[in-house]
Protein backbone atom coordinates (compact mmCIF):
# COMPACT_ATOMS: atom_id res chain seq x y z
CA UNK A 1 0.00 0.00 0.00
CA UNK A 2 2.96 2.34 0.42
CA UNK A 3 3.39 2.32 -3.36
CA UNK A 4 -0.29 3.17 -3.83
CA UNK A 5 -0.04 6.05 -1.36
CA UNK A 6 3.08 7.33 -3.13
CA UNK A 7 1.31 7.25 -6.50
CA UNK A 8 -1.69 9.09 -5.07
CA UNK A 9 0.64 11.67 -3.56
CA UNK A 10 2.11 12.30 -7.00
CA UNK A 11 -1.42 12.84 -8.34
CA UNK A 12 -2.20 15.26 -5.52
CA UNK A 13 0.95 17.25 -6.31
CA UNK A 14 0.38 17.27 -10.08
CA UNK A 15 0.15 20.70 -11.79
CA UNK A 16 -3.47 19.99 -12.74
CA UNK A 17 -4.41 20.19 -9.07
CA UNK A 18 -2.33 23.31 -8.55
CA UNK A 19 -1.02 22.18 -5.20
CA UNK A 20 -4.47 22.74 -3.70
CA UNK A 21 -4.63 19.44 -1.86
CA UNK A 22 -7.46 18.12 -4.02
CA UNK A 23 -7.31 14.39 -4.74
CA UNK A 24 -10.00 12.33 -6.41
CA UNK A 25 -10.77 10.14 -9.39
CA UNK A 26 -13.29 12.73 -10.61
CA UNK A 27 -12.89 16.47 -11.34
CA UNK A 28 -13.40 19.16 -8.72
CA UNK A 29 -16.28 20.44 -10.85
CA UNK A 30 -18.44 17.73 -9.24
CA UNK A 31 -18.16 19.64 -5.98
CA UNK A 32 -19.15 22.86 -7.75
CA UNK A 33 -22.40 21.13 -8.69
CA UNK A 34 -22.80 19.72 -5.18
CA UNK A 35 -22.47 23.17 -3.64
CA UNK A 36 -24.86 24.67 -6.20
CA UNK A 37 -27.50 22.02 -5.30
CA UNK A 38 -27.33 20.72 -8.86
CA UNK A 39 -27.54 17.03 -9.87
CA UNK A 40 -24.37 15.12 -9.01
CA UNK A 41 -23.80 11.70 -7.52
CA UNK A 42 -22.53 11.97 -3.94
CA UNK A 43 -18.91 13.14 -4.41
CA UNK A 44 -18.22 13.31 -0.67
CA UNK A 45 -19.25 9.67 -0.23
CA UNK A 46 -15.92 8.43 -1.59
CA UNK A 47 -13.65 11.38 -0.84
CA UNK A 48 -13.11 10.58 2.84
CA UNK A 49 -12.25 6.89 2.57
CA UNK A 50 -8.89 5.18 2.88
CA UNK A 51 -6.03 7.60 3.40
CA UNK A 52 -6.42 8.22 7.12
CA UNK A 53 -6.63 4.46 7.64
CA UNK A 54 -3.24 4.14 5.98
CA UNK A 55 -1.81 6.36 8.67
CA UNK A 56 -3.75 4.92 11.61
CA UNK A 57 -3.31 1.25 10.68
CA UNK A 58 -0.06 1.23 8.71
CA UNK A 59 1.70 4.29 10.17
CA UNK A 60 2.19 5.94 6.78
CA UNK A 61 3.13 9.56 7.55
CA UNK A 62 2.80 10.64 3.94
CA UNK A 63 -0.84 9.53 3.99
CA UNK A 64 -1.49 11.74 7.01
CA UNK A 65 0.08 14.75 5.29
CA UNK A 66 -2.15 14.11 2.28
CA UNK A 67 -5.27 13.94 4.46
CA UNK A 68 -4.33 17.23 6.14
CA UNK A 69 -3.94 18.84 2.71
CA UNK A 70 -7.32 17.48 1.60
CA UNK A 71 -8.97 18.76 4.79
CA UNK A 72 -7.52 22.20 4.08
CA UNK A 73 -8.89 22.15 0.54
CA UNK A 74 -12.41 21.13 1.54
CA UNK A 75 -12.41 23.44 4.52
CA UNK A 76 -11.86 26.35 2.14
CA UNK A 77 -14.65 25.11 -0.13
CA UNK A 78 -17.16 24.90 2.71
CA UNK A 79 -16.10 28.28 4.08
CA UNK A 80 -16.56 29.82 0.64
CA UNK A 81 -20.10 28.46 0.32
CA UNK A 82 -21.03 29.90 3.71
CA UNK A 83 -19.48 33.30 2.93
CA UNK A 84 -20.98 33.58 -0.57
CA UNK A 85 -24.40 32.25 0.35
CA UNK A 86 -25.28 31.20 3.90
CA UNK A 87 -24.82 28.46 6.44
CA UNK A 88 -28.30 27.24 5.47
CA UNK A 89 -27.09 26.72 1.91
CA UNK A 90 -24.34 24.47 3.23
CA UNK A 91 -26.80 22.52 5.40
CA UNK A 92 -29.05 22.04 2.36
CA UNK A 93 -26.20 20.53 0.37
CA UNK A 94 -25.85 17.87 3.08
CA UNK A 95 -29.14 16.35 1.94
CA UNK A 96 -26.93 14.61 -0.62
CA UNK A 97 -25.11 11.54 0.69
CA UNK A 98 -21.81 12.56 2.31
CA UNK A 99 -20.74 9.30 3.93
CA UNK A 100 -18.66 9.60 7.09
CA UNK A 101 -17.16 13.05 6.54
CA UNK A 102 -17.77 14.13 10.13
CA UNK A 103 -16.38 10.81 11.40
CA UNK A 104 -13.08 11.06 9.53
CA UNK A 105 -12.64 14.73 10.44
CA UNK A 106 -13.15 14.06 14.16
CA UNK A 107 -10.58 11.28 13.90
CA UNK A 108 -8.21 13.67 12.14
CA UNK A 109 -8.73 16.29 14.85
CA UNK A 110 -7.87 13.70 17.51
CA UNK A 111 -4.52 13.25 15.75
CA UNK A 112 -3.66 16.85 14.82
CA UNK A 113 -5.46 18.86 17.54
CA UNK A 114 -6.02 21.44 14.80
CA UNK A 115 -9.17 23.44 15.59
CA UNK A 116 -9.86 23.88 11.88
CA UNK A 117 -10.42 20.14 11.60
CA UNK A 118 -12.81 20.22 14.57
CA UNK A 119 -14.82 23.09 13.06
CA UNK A 120 -15.03 21.36 9.69
CA UNK A 121 -16.21 18.15 11.38
CA UNK A 122 -18.99 20.12 13.11
CA UNK A 123 -20.06 21.50 9.74
CA UNK A 124 -20.80 17.96 8.50
CA UNK A 125 -22.91 17.00 11.53
CA UNK A 126 -26.23 17.83 9.78
CA UNK A 127 -28.19 19.45 12.62
CA UNK A 128 -31.61 18.94 11.01
CA UNK A 129 -31.14 15.18 11.54
CA UNK A 130 -29.09 14.98 14.71
CA UNK A 131 -31.34 17.66 16.21
CA UNK A 132 -34.37 15.38 15.88
CA UNK A 133 -32.49 12.64 17.68
CA UNK A 134 -31.32 15.09 20.34
CA UNK A 135 -34.95 15.83 21.29
CA UNK A 136 -35.69 12.09 21.04
CA UNK A 137 -38.16 12.30 18.17
CA UNK A 138 -38.78 9.06 16.29
CA UNK A 139 -38.81 10.88 12.97
CA UNK A 140 -36.68 8.66 10.75
CA UNK A 141 -39.45 8.31 8.15
CA UNK A 142 -38.39 9.30 4.63
CA UNK A 143 -34.73 9.75 5.55
CA UNK A 144 -32.23 7.89 3.38
CA UNK A 145 -30.82 5.32 5.78
CA UNK A 146 -27.21 5.06 4.67
CA UNK A 147 -26.84 8.81 4.32
CA UNK A 148 -27.67 9.24 7.99
CA UNK A 149 -26.28 6.22 9.84
CA UNK A 150 -22.68 7.38 9.11
CA UNK A 151 -23.62 10.81 10.49
CA UNK A 152 -24.58 9.11 13.77
CA UNK A 153 -21.24 7.26 13.72
CA UNK A 154 -19.55 10.63 13.28
CA UNK A 155 -21.54 11.93 16.23
CA UNK A 156 -20.22 9.02 18.27
CA UNK A 157 -16.69 10.04 17.34
CA UNK A 158 -17.56 13.61 18.38
CA UNK A 159 -18.45 12.24 21.82
CA UNK A 160 -15.21 10.26 22.03
CA UNK A 161 -13.07 13.22 20.95
CA UNK A 162 -14.80 16.08 22.78
CA UNK A 163 -16.63 14.32 25.62
CA UNK A 164 -19.90 16.05 24.73
CA UNK A 165 -22.51 13.78 26.39
CA UNK A 166 -25.30 14.88 24.06
CA UNK A 167 -23.80 12.81 21.25
CA UNK A 168 -23.68 9.71 23.40
CA UNK A 169 -27.38 10.24 24.14
CA UNK A 170 -28.10 10.76 20.44
CA UNK A 171 -26.45 7.49 19.47
CA UNK A 172 -28.18 5.57 22.26
CA UNK A 173 -31.60 6.90 21.27
CA UNK A 174 -30.94 6.28 17.59
CA UNK A 175 -30.00 2.64 18.20
CA UNK A 176 -33.07 2.13 20.36
CA UNK A 177 -35.38 3.63 17.73
CA UNK A 178 -33.93 1.66 14.83
CA UNK A 179 -34.01 -1.61 16.76
CA UNK A 180 -37.50 -1.18 18.15
CA UNK A 181 -39.23 0.21 15.07
CA UNK A 182 -37.26 -0.22 11.84
CA UNK A 183 -35.25 -3.46 12.06
CA UNK A 184 -35.94 -6.86 10.50
CA UNK A 185 -35.14 -10.19 12.12
CA UNK A 186 -31.79 -10.13 10.31
CA UNK A 187 -30.70 -7.09 12.31
CA UNK A 188 -30.84 -5.05 9.10
CA UNK A 189 -32.87 -1.98 8.22
CA UNK A 190 -34.22 0.12 5.29
CA UNK A 191 -36.62 -0.39 2.39
CA UNK A 192 -35.37 0.68 -1.04
CA UNK A 193 -32.62 2.49 0.91
CA UNK A 194 -35.06 4.54 3.04
CA UNK A 195 -36.78 4.38 6.40
CA UNK A 196 -40.55 4.56 6.45
CA UNK A 197 -43.17 4.70 9.20
CA UNK A 198 -42.09 3.19 12.54
CA UNK A 199 -43.47 -0.22 13.46
CA UNK A 200 -45.02 -0.65 10.03
CA UNK A 201 -42.70 -3.24 8.51
CA UNK A 202 -45.28 -5.87 7.53
CA UNK A 203 -46.11 -4.11 4.27
CA UNK A 204 -42.47 -3.43 3.38
CA UNK A 205 -41.39 -7.03 2.74
CA UNK A 206 -39.98 -7.12 -0.78
CA UNK A 207 -36.76 -7.80 -2.69
CA UNK A 208 -35.39 -4.35 -1.84
CA UNK A 209 -34.96 -4.67 1.92
CA UNK A 210 -31.87 -4.03 4.00
CA UNK A 211 -29.31 -2.22 1.89
CA UNK A 212 -26.04 -3.97 2.76
CA UNK A 213 -24.24 -0.70 3.54
CA UNK A 214 -26.68 0.01 6.35
CA UNK A 215 -25.77 -3.19 8.18
CA UNK A 216 -22.08 -2.37 7.86
CA UNK A 217 -22.66 1.01 9.48
CA UNK A 218 -25.10 -0.20 12.15
CA UNK A 219 -22.36 -2.58 13.31
CA UNK A 220 -20.18 0.49 13.87
CA UNK A 221 -22.92 2.15 15.92
CA UNK A 222 -23.42 -0.93 18.10
CA UNK A 223 -19.68 -1.43 18.56
CA UNK A 224 -19.22 2.10 19.93
CA UNK A 225 -22.21 1.68 22.25
CA UNK A 226 -20.91 -1.62 23.59
CA UNK A 227 -17.49 -0.11 24.24
CA UNK A 228 -19.07 2.70 26.24
CA UNK A 229 -21.63 0.68 28.21
CA UNK A 230 -20.67 -3.01 28.14
CA UNK A 231 -24.37 -3.76 27.69
CA UNK A 232 -25.06 -7.27 26.40
CA UNK A 233 -27.87 -6.05 24.13
CA UNK A 234 -25.40 -4.29 21.84
CA UNK A 235 -23.19 -7.39 21.58
CA UNK A 236 -26.27 -9.52 20.89
CA UNK A 237 -27.26 -7.13 18.12
CA UNK A 238 -23.77 -7.25 16.65
CA UNK A 239 -23.90 -11.05 16.56
CA UNK A 240 -27.32 -11.11 14.89
CA UNK A 241 -26.45 -8.53 12.25
CA UNK A 242 -23.08 -10.13 11.52
CA UNK A 243 -24.48 -13.65 11.06
CA UNK A 244 -27.66 -12.79 9.21
CA UNK A 245 -26.97 -9.41 7.66
CA UNK A 246 -23.30 -9.68 6.64
CA UNK A 247 -22.74 -13.38 5.95
CA UNK A 248 -25.95 -13.47 3.89
CA UNK A 249 -24.79 -10.97 1.28
CA UNK A 250 -22.09 -13.19 -0.30
CA UNK A 251 -23.05 -16.05 -2.59
CA UNK A 252 -21.86 -19.00 -0.55
CA UNK A 253 -18.16 -19.53 -1.00
CA UNK A 254 -17.93 -17.34 -4.10
CA UNK A 255 -15.76 -14.44 -2.90
CA UNK A 256 -16.63 -11.14 -4.51
CA UNK A 257 -20.12 -12.24 -5.58
CA UNK A 258 -22.37 -10.05 -3.43
CA UNK A 259 -25.79 -8.46 -3.34
CA UNK A 260 -26.93 -4.89 -2.84
CA UNK A 261 -30.19 -5.62 -1.00
CA UNK A 262 -31.21 -8.60 1.15
CA UNK A 263 -34.76 -9.66 0.19
CA UNK A 264 -37.19 -10.30 3.07
CA UNK A 265 -40.45 -10.84 1.16
CA UNK A 266 -42.28 -14.17 0.72
CA UNK A 267 -40.90 -16.44 -1.98
CA UNK A 268 -38.00 -14.16 -2.89
CA UNK A 269 -34.48 -14.96 -4.07
CA UNK A 270 -31.21 -13.14 -3.64
CA UNK A 271 -30.56 -13.78 -7.33
CA UNK A 272 -33.86 -12.31 -8.49
CA UNK A 273 -33.87 -8.71 -7.34
CA UNK A 274 -33.16 -5.29 -8.83
CA UNK A 275 -29.39 -5.77 -8.74
CA UNK A 276 -29.17 -9.53 -8.24
CA UNK A 277 -25.73 -10.98 -7.65
CA UNK A 278 -22.81 -8.78 -8.59
CA UNK A 279 -19.63 -9.99 -10.24
CA UNK A 280 -16.13 -10.23 -8.86
CA UNK A 281 -14.50 -7.65 -11.11
CA UNK A 282 -17.23 -5.60 -12.80
CA UNK A 283 -19.58 -4.57 -9.97
CA UNK A 284 -18.63 -1.49 -8.00
CA UNK A 285 -21.71 -0.53 -6.05
CA UNK A 286 -21.40 1.19 -2.70
CA UNK A 287 -22.36 -2.14 -1.11
CA UNK A 288 -19.33 -3.75 -2.71
CA UNK A 289 -17.04 -1.36 -0.87
CA UNK A 290 -18.70 -1.96 2.48
CA UNK A 291 -19.23 -5.65 1.70
CA UNK A 292 -15.56 -6.31 1.03
CA UNK A 293 -14.64 -4.42 4.18
CA UNK A 294 -17.24 -6.35 6.19
CA UNK A 295 -15.73 -9.67 5.17
CA UNK A 296 -12.27 -8.38 6.03
CA UNK A 297 -13.55 -7.57 9.54
CA UNK A 298 -14.97 -10.96 10.53
CA UNK A 299 -12.33 -11.07 13.27
CA UNK A 300 -13.33 -7.66 14.58
CA UNK A 301 -15.23 -7.14 17.86
CA UNK A 302 -14.66 -10.65 19.24
CA UNK A 303 -12.52 -9.42 22.15
CA UNK A 304 -12.52 -6.15 24.09
CA UNK A 305 -9.89 -5.22 26.65
CA UNK A 306 -10.50 -3.02 29.67
CA UNK A 307 -7.21 -1.56 30.78
CA UNK A 308 -6.35 -0.20 34.19
CA UNK A 309 -5.36 -1.41 37.62
CA UNK A 310 -7.67 -4.41 37.24
CA UNK A 311 -7.26 -5.66 33.67
CA UNK A 312 -10.28 -7.37 32.17
CA UNK A 313 -11.06 -9.11 28.91
CA UNK A 314 -14.54 -9.27 27.40
CA UNK A 315 -15.22 -12.15 25.02
CA UNK A 316 -18.37 -11.14 23.21
CA UNK A 317 -18.54 -13.25 20.02
CA UNK A 318 -18.23 -16.99 19.61
CA UNK A 319 -15.82 -17.25 16.71
CA UNK A 320 -12.83 -19.63 16.57
CA UNK A 321 -9.83 -17.36 17.07
CA UNK A 322 -6.70 -16.59 19.04
CA UNK A 323 -6.16 -13.37 20.98
CA UNK A 324 -2.75 -12.19 22.18
CA UNK A 325 -3.51 -10.37 25.41
CA UNK A 326 -0.19 -8.58 25.56
CA UNK A 327 -0.84 -6.39 28.59
CA UNK A 328 -1.18 -9.42 30.88
CA UNK A 329 1.09 -11.81 28.99
CA UNK A 330 -1.62 -14.30 28.04
CA UNK A 331 -2.81 -15.91 24.83
CA UNK A 332 -6.47 -16.91 24.65
CA UNK A 333 -7.52 -19.51 22.10
CA UNK A 334 -11.23 -19.91 21.43
CA UNK A 335 -12.65 -23.05 19.86
CA UNK A 336 -16.31 -23.45 18.94
CA UNK A 337 -17.86 -26.81 18.12
CA UNK A 338 -19.82 -26.64 14.85
CA UNK A 339 -23.53 -26.40 15.53
CA UNK A 340 -26.19 -28.72 14.23
CA UNK A 341 -29.95 -28.84 14.56
CA UNK A 342 -29.79 -32.29 16.16
CA UNK A 343 -27.33 -31.26 18.91
CA UNK A 344 -28.82 -28.04 20.18
CA UNK A 345 -25.98 -26.81 22.37
CA UNK A 346 -23.36 -24.21 21.60
CA UNK A 347 -20.10 -25.53 23.02
CA UNK A 348 -17.20 -23.12 23.50
CA UNK A 349 -13.73 -23.87 24.83
CA UNK A 350 -11.24 -21.20 25.93
CA UNK A 351 -7.63 -22.27 26.43
CA UNK A 352 -5.02 -20.09 28.12
CA UNK A 353 -1.27 -20.07 27.60
CA UNK A 354 1.32 -17.78 29.18
CA UNK A 355 4.99 -17.10 28.48
CA UNK A 356 5.59 -16.56 32.20
CA UNK A 357 3.40 -16.74 35.26
CA UNK A 358 0.25 -14.85 34.42
CA UNK A 359 -1.25 -12.11 36.51
CA UNK A 360 -4.61 -11.57 38.13
CA UNK A 361 -7.19 -10.58 35.57
CA UNK A 362 -10.87 -10.99 34.88
CA UNK A 363 -12.22 -12.85 31.88
CA UNK A 364 -15.83 -11.95 31.06
CA UNK A 365 -17.73 -14.17 28.64
CA UNK A 366 -21.02 -13.06 27.12
CA UNK A 367 -24.01 -15.24 27.93
CA UNK A 368 -26.35 -14.19 25.13
CA UNK A 369 -29.98 -13.34 25.68
CA UNK A 370 -31.08 -16.14 23.36
CA UNK A 371 -29.43 -18.85 25.50
CA UNK A 372 -31.73 -21.12 27.48
CA UNK A 373 -30.89 -21.26 31.21
CA UNK A 374 -31.97 -24.89 31.40
CA UNK A 375 -28.93 -27.06 30.83
CA UNK A 376 -26.46 -24.20 30.58
CA UNK A 377 -23.17 -24.91 32.29
CA UNK A 378 -19.64 -23.59 32.63
CA UNK A 379 -16.47 -25.20 33.92
CA UNK A 380 -13.04 -23.91 34.86
CA UNK A 381 -10.33 -26.56 34.70
CA UNK A 382 -13.09 -29.23 34.71
CA UNK A 383 -14.77 -27.87 37.85
CA UNK A 384 -18.29 -26.50 37.63
CA UNK A 385 -18.83 -22.76 37.93
CA UNK A 386 -21.98 -20.97 39.00
CA UNK A 387 -23.60 -20.15 35.68
CA UNK A 388 -24.51 -16.57 34.83
CA UNK A 389 -27.99 -15.72 33.59
CA UNK A 390 -28.70 -15.07 29.90
CA UNK A 391 -28.12 -11.44 29.05
CA UNK A 392 -25.18 -11.07 31.46
CA UNK A 393 -21.47 -11.86 31.60
CA UNK A 394 -19.90 -14.89 33.22
CA UNK A 395 -16.93 -13.34 35.05
CA UNK A 396 -13.92 -15.28 36.29
CA UNK A 397 -11.10 -13.54 38.17
CA UNK A 398 -7.93 -15.44 38.96
CA UNK A 399 -4.22 -15.62 38.32
CA UNK A 400 -4.26 -17.16 34.90
CA UNK A 401 -1.56 -19.45 33.62
CA UNK A 402 -0.78 -22.01 30.95
CA UNK A 403 -3.15 -24.94 30.97
CA UNK A 404 -6.17 -23.07 32.28
CA UNK A 405 -9.29 -23.83 30.30
CA UNK A 406 -12.81 -22.50 30.51
CA UNK A 407 -15.72 -24.27 28.81
CA UNK A 408 -19.29 -23.22 28.12
CA UNK A 409 -22.37 -25.16 27.11
CA UNK A 410 -25.24 -22.94 26.01
CA UNK A 411 -28.51 -24.62 25.01
CA UNK A 412 -30.06 -23.16 21.87
CA UNK A 413 -33.77 -23.39 21.20
CA UNK A 414 -36.12 -22.48 18.42
CA UNK A 415 -38.23 -19.39 18.90
CA UNK A 416 -40.42 -17.05 16.92
CA UNK A 417 -40.15 -13.29 16.73
CA UNK A 418 -42.92 -10.98 15.57
CA UNK A 419 -42.25 -8.45 12.85
CA UNK A 420 -41.87 -4.84 13.98
CA UNK A 421 -45.47 -3.85 13.32
CA UNK A 422 -47.90 -2.79 16.05
CA UNK A 423 -51.09 -3.33 14.03
CA UNK A 424 -53.12 -6.27 15.42
CA UNK A 425 -53.72 -7.82 12.00
CA UNK A 426 -49.98 -8.47 11.65
CA UNK A 427 -49.36 -9.92 15.11
CA UNK A 428 -49.12 -13.43 13.65
CA UNK A 429 -46.45 -12.49 11.08
CA UNK A 430 -43.31 -13.91 12.63
CA UNK A 431 -39.77 -15.09 11.86
CA UNK A 432 -38.21 -18.31 13.15
CA UNK A 433 -34.80 -18.18 14.83
CA UNK A 434 -32.45 -20.84 16.17
CA UNK A 435 -30.34 -18.96 18.67
CA UNK A 436 -28.85 -16.07 16.67
CA UNK A 437 -29.57 -17.74 13.31
CA UNK A 438 -32.51 -16.51 11.25
CA UNK A 439 -34.07 -19.52 9.52
CA UNK A 440 -35.44 -19.08 6.01
CA UNK A 441 -38.06 -21.42 4.61
CA UNK A 442 -37.41 -22.75 1.12
CA UNK A 443 -40.75 -21.80 -0.40
CA UNK A 444 -41.81 -19.98 -3.55
CA UNK A 445 -44.36 -17.74 -1.90
CA UNK A 446 -46.32 -19.85 0.58
CA UNK A 447 -45.84 -18.17 3.95
CA UNK A 448 -48.70 -19.75 5.87
CA UNK A 449 -47.33 -21.91 8.67
CA UNK A 450 -49.48 -24.70 10.08
CA UNK A 451 -48.79 -24.05 13.74
CA UNK A 452 -52.31 -24.34 15.13
CA UNK A 453 -51.23 -22.81 18.41
CA UNK A 454 -48.68 -25.57 19.00
CA UNK A 455 -45.24 -24.97 20.44
CA UNK A 456 -42.55 -24.36 17.84
CA UNK A 457 -40.84 -27.67 18.65
CA UNK A 458 -44.06 -29.53 17.79
CA UNK A 459 -44.25 -28.44 14.17
CA UNK A 460 -40.57 -27.95 13.32
CA UNK A 461 -38.40 -31.08 13.25
CA UNK A 462 -34.58 -31.19 13.08
CA UNK A 463 -33.20 -32.80 9.93
CA UNK A 464 -30.80 -35.57 11.02
CA UNK A 465 -27.25 -35.32 9.71
CA UNK A 466 -27.67 -38.82 8.25
CA UNK A 467 -30.00 -37.40 5.60
CA UNK A 468 -27.05 -35.90 3.77
CA UNK A 469 -26.39 -39.43 2.52
CA UNK A 470 -29.94 -39.68 1.18
CA UNK A 471 -30.11 -36.79 -1.22
CA UNK A 472 -32.96 -38.22 -3.24
CA UNK A 473 -35.80 -38.04 -0.73
CA UNK A 474 -37.09 -37.66 2.79
CA UNK A 475 -37.90 -41.23 3.81
CA UNK A 476 -36.02 -43.22 6.39
CA UNK A 477 -36.20 -44.90 9.74
CA UNK A 478 -34.32 -42.48 11.97
CA UNK A 479 -37.32 -41.04 13.77
CA UNK A 480 -37.49 -38.12 11.34
CA UNK A 481 -41.10 -37.24 10.54
CA UNK A 482 -41.79 -37.65 6.78
CA UNK A 483 -45.03 -35.73 7.24
CA UNK A 484 -43.19 -32.72 8.57
CA UNK A 485 -40.59 -33.04 5.84
CA UNK A 486 -42.79 -33.32 2.77
CA UNK A 487 -41.10 -30.33 1.21
CA UNK A 488 -39.90 -29.93 -2.36
CA UNK A 489 -36.17 -29.42 -2.64
CA UNK A 490 -35.16 -26.18 -4.31
CA UNK A 491 -31.86 -27.78 -5.35
CA UNK A 492 -32.26 -31.59 -5.42
CA UNK A 493 -28.54 -32.34 -5.18
CA UNK A 494 -27.67 -29.76 -2.54
CA UNK A 495 -26.72 -31.20 0.80
CA UNK A 496 -28.56 -30.14 3.91
CA UNK A 497 -26.82 -27.58 6.06
CA UNK A 498 -26.01 -28.99 9.52
CA UNK A 499 -28.58 -26.52 10.87
CA UNK A 500 -31.68 -27.72 9.02
CA UNK A 501 -35.29 -28.18 10.07
CA UNK A 502 -38.44 -29.45 8.41
CA UNK A 503 -41.60 -27.46 9.06
CA UNK A 504 -45.30 -27.97 8.37
CA UNK A 505 -46.90 -25.46 6.08
CA UNK A 506 -50.63 -24.92 5.61
CA UNK A 507 -50.49 -26.64 2.21
CA UNK A 508 -47.17 -28.50 2.23
CA UNK A 509 -44.02 -28.84 4.27
CA UNK A 510 -40.86 -26.88 3.70
CA UNK A 511 -37.21 -26.86 4.69
CA UNK A 512 -35.80 -24.25 7.08
CA UNK A 513 -32.11 -23.35 6.91
CA UNK A 514 -30.03 -20.34 8.03
CA UNK A 515 -30.53 -17.42 5.66
CA UNK A 516 -26.78 -16.95 5.19
CA UNK A 517 -26.47 -20.44 3.65
CA UNK A 518 -28.86 -19.71 0.77
CA UNK A 519 -27.69 -18.70 -2.68
CA UNK A 520 -30.23 -18.73 -5.52
CA UNK A 521 -33.10 -20.52 -3.78
CA UNK A 522 -36.52 -18.96 -3.32
CA UNK A 523 -37.22 -18.45 0.35
CA UNK A 524 -39.43 -16.80 2.97
CA UNK A 525 -38.28 -15.35 6.30
CA UNK A 526 -41.60 -14.21 7.80
CA UNK A 527 -44.47 -16.66 8.18
CA UNK A 528 -48.15 -16.19 8.89
CA UNK A 529 -48.71 -18.16 12.09
CA UNK A 530 -52.41 -17.37 12.07
CA UNK A 531 -53.12 -19.51 9.01
A few lines on this structure:
This protein is an alpha+beta fold and 531 residues long. Helices cover 33% and strands 17% of the residues.
Strand percentage lies at 15-25%
How many domains make up the coordinates? 4
**What structural class should be given to the helix and strand makeup?**
alpha+beta
Major sheet characteristics: 7 strands, antiparallel
Rg: 25 Å
Q: Please tally the β strands and state the result.
A: 17
Number of helices: 15
Distance between the termini: 57 Å
Q: Helical content, roughly?
A: 25-40%
Low-confidence stretches: 469-493
User: What is the 3D form?
Assistant: globular
User: Kindly state the mean pLDDT as a whole number?
Assistant: 91
List the helices and strands and how they pair.
Blueprint: H1 2-13, H2 29-35, H3 43-47, H4 51-58, H5 61-84, H6 87-93, H7 101-112, H8 115-122, H9 127-134, H10 145-162, H11 165-181, H12 212-229, H13 232-246, H14 286-296, E1 303-306, E2 312-315, E3 321-325, E4 330-336, E5 345-354, E6 360-367, E7 377-380, E8 383-384, E9 392-399, E10 405-411, E11 414-418, E12 429-434, E13 437-441, H15 456-459, E14 460-462, E15 501-504, E16 509-514, E17 527-528
Parallel strand pairs: 2-6
Antiparallel strand pairs: 1-2, 3-4, 4-5, 5-10, 6-9, 7-8, 7-10, 11-12, 12-13, 12-17, 13-16, 14-15, 15-16
Helix pairs in contact: 4-5, 5-6, 7-8, 7-10, 10-11, 10-12, 11-12, 12-13
